[in-house]
Design brief:
Elements (H helix, E strand, L loop, with lengths): L6 H17 L2 H9 L8 H9 L18 H12 L7 H15 L2 H13 L4 E4 L14 E5 L2 E12 L6 E7 L10 E7 L5 E6 L7 E12 L3 E2 L5 H37 L1 E2 L2 E2 L4 H29 L5 H26 L11 H11 L6 H11 L3
Parallel strand pairs: 1-4
Antiparallel strand pairs: 2-3, 3-7, 4-5, 5-8, 6-7, 9-10
Helix pairs in contact: 1-4, 4-7, 5-6, 5-7, 7-8, 7-9, 7-10, 8-9, 9-10, 9-11
């Protein structure tokens, strides 16, 4: 397993870096937040990303994609994270694209994948029902009536849920809460009768929603994958999502660290650069070491996904754990080393801490993935 980027992946990374710096610097994020934009991402920027082919990176060529793999989309998210670029790329270009390309039937692929590639359609993965991530705790019901399916229940903290066109929903077709069996995935048009989207205001100023399903009627053809295998399918999708999110969190950490280093080299206290203080040097050195460890963990998980490794689940949880711990440390230290101005809105550094606190919890926090990694490792 090579923990280095190949030529194509490096090209994608460089392209994303230039795009993020030129088209959507942190000032772009600020403008969206301050304008109270309901979807909290820019349609024009999304169209530019689509023209670059980013939403189609996980989609086969016959449907208009490029099939560059998890590593390709992950390095793009890593670079976009450095400028806090908000977009539907994670929920649509990773989760939606991967779900449909790998588990959808031919009709679903032909209908949805070209729309994702063009940027015409966005998706969201409605999975959690409580503040503690655990897909097995699903209680939302799916009742079959002739050729229809009736959905009832509630999903919370749905990433990009406030603006998504198509929802991928996990519901229970049999069994009880806590059981991994008896779960099925469904496609639901977000504008369907009985679907209520409640936009959430989160610390990181991104797009999230709680979604209530009240007697929502869909067709049997809207099942993703096989009936009652949704639990296993959802875990596979989640592992890919966690790897991509870990890459984004790595980018957040790198940007916060670089910003802090620049500040240490410029800020003077008592006529002396604070970067010359040995205590701060030691703390910066610790952050650097943790960042290097995180890069290796994320890269290993990316490679495991692209190579269909048996270690995918373990490495996915490892990457999410390490990326979460590093972002927590670096964002904390960055704010502290900036002193009082670190918590003011005038400076950008606080945005990385806010983003970090939310990203840590998406699809399982540090505790969840530490326990999962231990269980998968036989401890």
């Amino acid at each position: 397993m090579k923990l280095t980027l190949n030529e194509e992946e490096q090209f994608l990374k460089d392209t994303a870096k230039n795009f993020a710096q030129e088209r959507c610097p942190v000032t772009h994020f600020r403008s969206l937040r301050d304008s109270n934009d309901p979807q909290l991402w820019d349609k024009a920027i999304w169209n530019e990303m689509s023209k670059l082919g980013w939403p189609g990176i996980l989609i086969p060529e016959e449907y208009g994609g490029s099939n560059f793999g998890i590593s390709g989309i992950s390095v793009i998210l890593q670079e976009c994270a450095k400028t806090l670029t908000p977009s539907p790329l994670f929920a649509t270009g990773v989760i939606g694209a991967y779900s449909i390309a790998n588990f959808g039937n031919e009709n679903q692929k032909e209908e949805y994948l070209p729309k994702i590639v063009s940027g015409e359609m966005t998706t969201a993965f409605a999975i959690d029902e409580s503040s503690h991530h655990n897909p097995a705790d699903t209680e939302m019901t799916a009742e079959f009536k002739k050729d229809k399916v009736i959905l009832n229940g509630k999903k919370i903290f749905v990433v990009d849920g406030a603006s998504a066109d198509l929802l991928i929903v996990l519901a229970r077709t049999s069994g009880n809460k806590g059981e991994t069996s008896g779960l099925t995935l469904f496609f639901v048009n977000s504008n369907s009768s009985g679907v209520e989207k409640i936009k959430l205001d989160m610390a990181d100023s991104r797009n999230y929603a709680n979604i209530v399903f009240s007697d929502v009627e869909i067709n049997k053809e809207d099942i993703l994958g096989d009936i009652e295998t949704g639990g296993e399918t959802a875990e596979n999708i989640l592992d890919i999502a966690r790897i991509a999110l870990s890459a984004e969190m790595l980018g957040n950490s790198e940007a916060a660290f670089e910003t802090t280093l620049d500040y240490l080299k410029q800020r003077k206290q008592f006529g002396v650069l604070i970067g010359s203080f040995q205590a701060l040097q030691h703390r910066a050195a610790q952050m650097f070491c943790e960042l290097e460890l995180t890069k290796s963990s994320v890269m290993a998980a990316m490679r495991a996904a692209d190579e269909n490794s048996n270690e995918l689940q373990r490495l996915s949880s490892l990457a999410k754990t390490v990326a979460g711990e590093t972002l927590h440390l670096v964002s904390n230290e960055a704010v502290q080393m900036h002193g009082g101005i670190g918590v003011t809105d005038e400076y950008d550094i606080g945005f990385f801490l806010k983003r970090g606190r939310v990203a840590e919890q998406i699809y399982g926090g540090i505790k969840f993935h530490t326990e999962r990694y231990a269980n998968l490792s036989g401890f």
